[in-house]
TrEMBL record:
The keyword Signal does not apply. The chain crosses the membrane at residues 21-43. The keyword Transmembrane applies. Pfam families: OmpA. SUPFAM superfamilies: OmpA-like (SSF103088). Keywords: Coiled coil, Membrane, Transmembrane, Transmembrane helix. This is Peptidoglycan-binding protein. One of its GO terms (cellular component) is membrane. InterPro entries: Bact_OuterMem_StrucFunc, OmpA-like, OmpA-like_sf. Residues 54-102, 131-165 form a coiled coil.
Amino acid sequence: MALSRSRRHRSMDFWPGFVDALSTLLLTIMFLLTVFVLGQFLLSREISGKDVVLNQLHSQINELTRLLALERSNDQDTEDQINDLRASLEQAQQDKSRLRQLLDQGSGASASAKARITDLKGSLSDQQQVSQRALSQVDLLNQQISALRSQISALEDALDVSEKKQDASKAKIADLGKRLNVALARRVQELNRYRSDFFGRLREILADRQNIRVVGDRFVFQSEVLFGSGASDISDRGKTELAKLADVLKKITGEIPSDINWILEVDGFTDDVPVSASSQYANNWELSTARATAVVEYLISQGVQPNRLAAAGFGEYQPIAEGDTKEARAQNRRIEIKLTDR
Protein backbone atom coordinates (compact mmCIF):
# COMPACT_ATOMS: atom_id res chain seq x y z
CA MET A 1 0.00 0.00 0.00
CA ALA A 2 2.85 2.40 0.69
CA LEU A 3 4.29 1.66 -2.76
CA SER A 4 0.90 2.37 -4.37
CA ARG A 5 0.60 5.72 -2.59
CA SER A 6 4.13 6.64 -3.69
CA ARG A 7 3.28 5.88 -7.31
CA ARG A 8 0.10 7.92 -7.14
CA HIS A 9 2.05 10.81 -5.65
CA ARG A 10 4.63 10.74 -8.47
CA SER A 11 1.82 10.65 -11.04
CA MET A 12 0.21 13.70 -9.48
CA ASP A 13 3.56 15.55 -9.52
CA PHE A 14 3.91 14.96 -13.27
CA TRP A 15 1.10 17.29 -14.26
CA PRO A 16 2.33 20.47 -12.50
CA GLY A 17 5.69 19.99 -14.21
CA PHE A 18 3.93 19.66 -17.54
CA VAL A 19 1.97 22.86 -16.87
CA ASP A 20 5.21 24.64 -15.84
CA ALA A 21 6.80 23.66 -19.15
CA LEU A 22 3.75 24.82 -21.10
CA SER A 23 3.66 28.19 -19.31
CA THR A 24 7.40 28.59 -19.99
CA LEU A 25 6.82 28.04 -23.70
CA LEU A 26 3.96 30.55 -23.76
CA LEU A 27 6.02 33.17 -21.92
CA THR A 28 8.93 32.67 -24.33
CA ILE A 29 6.65 33.11 -27.34
CA MET A 30 5.15 36.27 -25.83
CA PHE A 31 8.62 37.73 -25.20
CA LEU A 32 9.73 36.90 -28.74
CA LEU A 33 6.61 38.55 -30.19
CA THR A 34 7.19 41.62 -28.03
CA VAL A 35 10.82 41.91 -29.17
CA PHE A 36 9.82 41.40 -32.78
CA VAL A 37 7.19 44.18 -32.58
CA LEU A 38 9.69 46.46 -30.81
CA GLY A 39 12.36 45.77 -33.45
CA GLN A 40 9.83 46.43 -36.24
CA PHE A 41 8.76 49.67 -34.57
CA LEU A 42 12.37 50.93 -34.14
CA LEU A 43 13.28 49.85 -37.69
CA SER A 44 10.17 51.59 -39.08
CA ARG A 45 11.09 54.82 -37.28
CA GLU A 46 14.71 54.64 -38.50
CA ILE A 47 13.70 53.97 -42.12
CA SER A 48 11.00 56.66 -41.99
CA GLY A 49 13.57 59.25 -40.91
CA LYS A 50 15.95 58.18 -43.69
CA ASP A 51 13.13 58.33 -46.26
CA VAL A 52 12.44 61.96 -45.32
CA VAL A 53 16.12 62.85 -45.89
CA LEU A 54 16.19 60.96 -49.20
CA ASN A 55 13.02 62.72 -50.39
CA GLN A 56 14.55 66.09 -49.54
CA LEU A 57 17.74 65.21 -51.45
CA HIS A 58 15.73 64.00 -54.45
CA SER A 59 13.71 67.24 -54.40
CA GLN A 60 16.93 69.30 -54.44
CA ILE A 61 18.34 67.21 -57.28
CA ASN A 62 15.13 67.66 -59.31
CA GLU A 63 15.25 71.43 -58.73
CA LEU A 64 18.92 71.60 -59.78
CA THR A 65 18.16 69.50 -62.86
CA ARG A 66 15.37 71.89 -63.81
CA LEU A 67 17.71 74.88 -63.37
CA LEU A 68 20.38 73.13 -65.46
CA ALA A 69 17.87 72.52 -68.26
CA LEU A 70 16.83 76.17 -68.12
CA GLU A 71 20.44 77.32 -68.28
CA ARG A 72 21.07 75.00 -71.20
CA SER A 73 18.07 76.51 -73.00
CA ASN A 74 19.44 80.01 -72.37
CA ASP A 75 22.85 78.82 -73.57
CA GLN A 76 21.27 77.56 -76.80
CA ASP A 77 19.53 80.93 -77.32
CA THR A 78 22.83 82.73 -76.81
CA GLU A 79 24.57 80.45 -79.28
CA ASP A 80 21.83 81.20 -81.81
CA GLN A 81 22.40 84.93 -81.30
CA ILE A 82 26.14 84.45 -81.75
CA ASN A 83 25.54 82.58 -84.99
CA ASP A 84 23.32 85.40 -86.23
CA LEU A 85 25.98 87.95 -85.31
CA ARG A 86 28.64 85.92 -87.06
CA ALA A 87 26.46 85.79 -90.19
CA SER A 88 25.98 89.57 -89.99
CA LEU A 89 29.74 90.00 -89.50
CA GLU A 90 30.49 87.88 -92.55
CA GLN A 91 27.98 89.87 -94.54
CA ALA A 92 29.58 93.11 -93.37
CA GLN A 93 33.02 91.82 -94.26
CA GLN A 94 31.77 90.91 -97.72
CA ASP A 95 30.32 94.41 -98.12
CA LYS A 96 33.61 95.87 -96.95
CA SER A 97 35.48 93.76 -99.46
CA ARG A 98 33.26 94.94 -102.30
CA LEU A 99 33.70 98.55 -101.27
CA ARG A 100 37.45 98.17 -101.21
CA GLN A 101 37.29 96.77 -104.73
CA LEU A 102 35.32 99.83 -105.81
CA LEU A 103 37.93 102.07 -104.19
CA ASP A 104 40.74 100.23 -105.94
CA GLN A 105 39.00 100.70 -109.30
CA GLY A 106 39.15 104.42 -109.07
CA SER A 107 39.84 107.22 -106.73
CA GLY A 108 36.87 109.10 -108.02
CA ALA A 109 34.34 107.21 -105.92
CA SER A 110 31.25 109.16 -105.10
CA ALA A 111 30.53 110.72 -101.73
CA SER A 112 27.63 108.32 -101.31
CA ALA A 113 29.97 105.33 -101.54
CA LYS A 114 32.24 106.80 -98.88
CA ALA A 115 29.25 107.39 -96.62
CA ARG A 116 28.19 103.78 -97.18
CA ILE A 117 31.63 102.60 -96.16
CA THR A 118 31.49 104.71 -92.98
CA ASP A 119 28.07 103.31 -92.08
CA LEU A 120 29.27 99.78 -92.65
CA LYS A 121 32.28 100.32 -90.44
CA GLY A 122 30.05 101.66 -87.64
CA SER A 123 27.69 98.72 -88.03
CA LEU A 124 30.63 96.34 -87.95
CA SER A 125 31.90 97.91 -84.72
CA ASP A 126 28.46 97.59 -83.13
CA GLN A 127 28.19 93.97 -84.19
CA GLN A 128 31.60 93.22 -82.74
CA GLN A 129 30.57 94.71 -79.39
CA VAL A 130 27.36 92.66 -79.37
CA SER A 131 29.36 89.55 -80.19
CA GLN A 132 31.79 90.27 -77.36
CA ARG A 133 28.94 90.68 -74.87
CA ALA A 134 27.40 87.42 -76.08
CA LEU A 135 30.70 85.62 -75.59
CA SER A 136 30.93 87.02 -72.04
CA GLN A 137 27.43 85.72 -71.29
CA VAL A 138 28.38 82.30 -72.64
CA ASP A 139 31.41 82.19 -70.33
CA LEU A 140 29.24 83.16 -67.36
CA LEU A 141 26.71 80.47 -68.22
CA ASN A 142 29.46 77.89 -68.51
CA GLN A 143 30.69 78.84 -65.04
CA GLN A 144 27.15 78.51 -63.62
CA ILE A 145 26.72 75.13 -65.28
CA SER A 146 30.01 73.94 -63.78
CA ALA A 147 28.91 75.11 -60.31
CA LEU A 148 25.58 73.29 -60.71
CA ARG A 149 27.36 70.12 -61.71
CA SER A 150 29.57 70.41 -58.62
CA GLN A 151 26.48 70.79 -56.41
CA ILE A 152 24.82 67.76 -58.03
CA SER A 153 27.97 65.72 -57.46
CA ALA A 154 28.07 66.78 -53.80
CA LEU A 155 24.40 65.83 -53.39
CA GLU A 156 25.02 62.43 -54.94
CA ASP A 157 27.93 61.87 -52.53
CA ALA A 158 25.72 62.89 -49.59
CA LEU A 159 23.04 60.49 -50.82
CA ASP A 160 25.55 57.63 -50.94
CA VAL A 161 26.70 58.42 -47.39
CA SER A 162 23.10 58.52 -46.19
CA GLU A 163 22.33 55.15 -47.77
CA LYS A 164 25.42 53.63 -46.15
CA LYS A 165 24.38 55.02 -42.76
CA GLN A 166 20.90 53.58 -43.26
CA ASP A 167 22.34 50.14 -44.00
CA ALA A 168 24.52 50.38 -40.90
CA SER A 169 21.49 51.36 -38.79
CA LYS A 170 19.53 48.37 -40.06
CA ALA A 171 22.42 46.09 -39.14
CA LYS A 172 22.63 47.60 -35.65
CA ILE A 173 18.88 47.18 -35.10
CA ALA A 174 19.05 43.54 -36.19
CA ASP A 175 21.99 42.89 -33.85
CA LEU A 176 20.19 44.66 -30.98
CA GLY A 177 17.13 42.48 -31.55
CA LYS A 178 19.19 39.32 -31.45
CA ARG A 179 20.95 40.32 -28.23
CA LEU A 180 17.65 41.34 -26.63
CA ASN A 181 16.10 38.01 -27.56
CA VAL A 182 19.01 36.15 -25.99
CA ALA A 183 18.84 38.24 -22.79
CA LEU A 184 15.09 37.83 -22.44
CA ALA A 185 15.27 34.09 -23.05
CA ARG A 186 18.00 33.79 -20.42
CA ARG A 187 15.93 35.74 -17.86
CA VAL A 188 12.85 33.60 -18.57
CA GLN A 189 14.87 30.42 -18.12
CA GLU A 190 16.34 31.67 -14.85
CA LEU A 191 12.95 32.72 -13.46
CA ASN A 192 11.40 29.40 -14.46
CA ARG A 193 14.26 27.53 -12.80
CA TYR A 194 13.76 29.40 -9.52
CA ARG A 195 9.98 29.05 -9.81
CA SER A 196 10.37 25.27 -10.19
CA ASP A 197 12.74 25.20 -7.23
CA PHE A 198 10.29 27.28 -5.17
CA PHE A 199 7.32 25.06 -5.92
CA GLY A 200 9.41 21.93 -5.46
CA ARG A 201 10.36 22.94 -1.92
CA LEU A 202 6.79 23.93 -1.07
CA ARG A 203 5.51 20.59 -2.35
CA GLU A 204 7.88 18.83 0.02
CA ILE A 205 6.66 20.92 2.97
CA LEU A 206 2.95 20.93 2.17
CA ALA A 207 2.51 17.56 0.44
CA ASP A 208 0.72 15.86 3.33
CA ARG A 209 -1.86 18.64 3.92
CA GLN A 210 -5.31 18.01 2.48
CA ASN A 211 -6.47 21.64 2.56
CA ILE A 212 -3.48 22.88 0.52
CA ARG A 213 -3.48 21.92 -3.16
CA VAL A 214 -1.26 22.47 -6.18
CA VAL A 215 -3.29 23.80 -9.13
CA GLY A 216 -1.19 24.48 -12.21
CA ASP A 217 1.51 27.00 -11.32
CA ARG A 218 0.09 28.05 -7.96
CA PHE A 219 -0.56 26.81 -4.41
CA VAL A 220 -4.13 26.99 -3.18
CA PHE A 221 -4.90 27.39 0.55
CA GLN A 222 -8.50 26.78 1.53
CA SER A 223 -9.76 29.77 3.50
CA GLU A 224 -10.62 27.56 6.47
CA VAL A 225 -6.89 26.83 6.90
CA LEU A 226 -6.06 30.52 7.36
CA PHE A 227 -9.24 32.32 8.47
CA GLY A 228 -12.41 31.93 10.44
CA SER A 229 -15.82 32.30 8.80
CA GLY A 230 -16.30 35.82 7.40
CA ALA A 231 -13.07 37.05 9.04
CA SER A 232 -9.74 38.34 7.71
CA ASP A 233 -7.63 37.70 10.84
CA ILE A 234 -5.18 34.84 10.27
CA SER A 235 -5.65 31.93 12.65
CA ASP A 236 -2.80 30.36 14.61
CA ARG A 237 -2.91 27.35 12.32
CA GLY A 238 -2.72 29.65 9.30
CA LYS A 239 0.25 31.53 10.76
CA THR A 240 2.08 28.25 11.18
CA GLU A 241 1.53 27.34 7.53
CA LEU A 242 2.45 30.84 6.28
CA ALA A 243 5.60 30.88 8.44
CA LYS A 244 6.80 27.78 6.60
CA LEU A 245 6.04 29.49 3.33
CA ALA A 246 7.98 32.60 4.45
CA ASP A 247 11.04 30.47 5.32
CA VAL A 248 11.08 28.99 1.82
CA LEU A 249 10.61 32.45 0.28
CA LYS A 250 13.54 33.94 2.18
CA LYS A 251 15.82 31.12 1.09
CA ILE A 252 14.74 31.42 -2.55
CA THR A 253 15.03 35.25 -2.44
CA GLY A 254 18.69 35.00 -1.53
CA GLU A 255 19.37 32.76 -4.51
CA ILE A 256 17.46 34.67 -7.23
CA PRO A 257 19.65 37.35 -8.92
CA SER A 258 18.56 40.90 -8.14
CA ASP A 259 18.05 41.77 -11.82
CA ILE A 260 15.23 39.21 -12.19
CA ASN A 261 12.01 41.16 -11.62
CA TRP A 262 9.86 38.61 -9.75
CA ILE A 263 6.96 38.93 -7.32
CA LEU A 264 4.83 36.62 -5.19
CA GLU A 265 1.19 37.24 -6.09
CA VAL A 266 -1.40 36.57 -3.36
CA ASP A 267 -5.04 36.41 -4.59
CA GLY A 268 -8.12 36.17 -2.39
CA PHE A 269 -11.43 34.50 -3.44
CA THR A 270 -14.77 33.90 -1.68
CA ASP A 271 -17.90 31.85 -2.38
CA ASP A 272 -21.15 33.39 -3.68
CA VAL A 273 -22.81 33.69 -0.28
CA PRO A 274 -23.27 37.41 0.62
CA VAL A 275 -21.54 38.64 3.74
CA SER A 276 -23.71 38.90 6.83
CA ALA A 277 -25.23 42.20 7.87
CA SER A 278 -23.11 42.23 11.00
CA SER A 279 -19.84 41.82 9.08
CA GLN A 280 -17.34 44.66 9.01
CA TYR A 281 -17.09 44.24 5.23
CA ALA A 282 -19.69 45.57 2.79
CA ASN A 283 -19.32 42.72 0.30
CA ASN A 284 -17.19 39.77 -0.78
CA TRP A 285 -14.88 42.06 -2.76
CA GLU A 286 -13.72 43.75 0.42
CA LEU A 287 -13.49 40.45 2.31
CA SER A 288 -11.34 38.74 -0.36
CA THR A 289 -9.08 41.80 -0.66
CA ALA A 290 -8.69 42.06 3.14
CA ARG A 291 -7.71 38.37 3.36
CA ALA A 292 -5.11 38.66 0.59
CA THR A 293 -3.71 41.80 2.25
CA ALA A 294 -3.56 40.03 5.63
CA VAL A 295 -1.49 37.21 4.11
CA VAL A 296 0.91 39.71 2.52
CA GLU A 297 1.31 41.65 5.77
CA TYR A 298 2.03 38.48 7.73
CA LEU A 299 4.68 37.39 5.19
CA ILE A 300 6.28 40.83 5.52
CA SER A 301 6.32 40.41 9.31
CA GLN A 302 8.20 37.14 8.77
CA GLY A 303 10.97 38.89 6.81
CA VAL A 304 9.77 38.68 3.19
CA GLN A 305 10.65 41.81 1.20
CA PRO A 306 7.54 44.02 0.66
CA ASN A 307 8.55 44.95 -2.89
CA ARG A 308 8.34 41.27 -3.84
CA LEU A 309 4.69 40.87 -2.76
CA ALA A 310 1.34 41.80 -4.31
CA ALA A 311 -2.24 41.35 -3.04
CA ALA A 312 -5.52 41.28 -4.96
CA GLY A 313 -9.13 40.36 -4.20
CA PHE A 314 -11.57 38.80 -6.70
CA GLY A 315 -14.65 38.21 -4.55
CA GLU A 316 -16.89 35.39 -5.75
CA TYR A 317 -16.46 36.12 -9.47
CA GLN A 318 -13.78 33.56 -10.36
CA PRO A 319 -14.96 30.23 -8.96
CA ILE A 320 -13.09 26.99 -9.63
CA ALA A 321 -16.07 24.79 -8.77
CA GLU A 322 -19.54 25.26 -10.28
CA GLY A 323 -22.74 24.90 -8.32
CA ASP A 324 -24.08 25.97 -4.94
CA THR A 325 -23.31 22.86 -2.97
CA LYS A 326 -21.42 23.02 0.30
CA GLU A 327 -18.40 21.27 -1.25
CA ALA A 328 -18.28 23.61 -4.29
CA ARG A 329 -18.47 26.72 -2.13
CA ALA A 330 -15.73 25.38 0.16
CA GLN A 331 -13.41 24.97 -2.86
CA ASN A 332 -14.15 28.51 -4.04
CA ARG A 333 -13.21 30.05 -0.68
CA ARG A 334 -9.45 30.10 -1.11
CA ILE A 335 -6.13 31.97 -1.16
CA GLU A 336 -3.93 31.38 -4.23
CA ILE A 337 -0.18 32.07 -4.20
CA LYS A 338 2.06 31.99 -7.24
CA LEU A 339 5.59 33.12 -8.12
CA THR A 340 5.66 35.16 -11.32
CA ASP A 341 7.42 38.06 -13.03
CA ARG A 342 6.40 41.65 -12.57
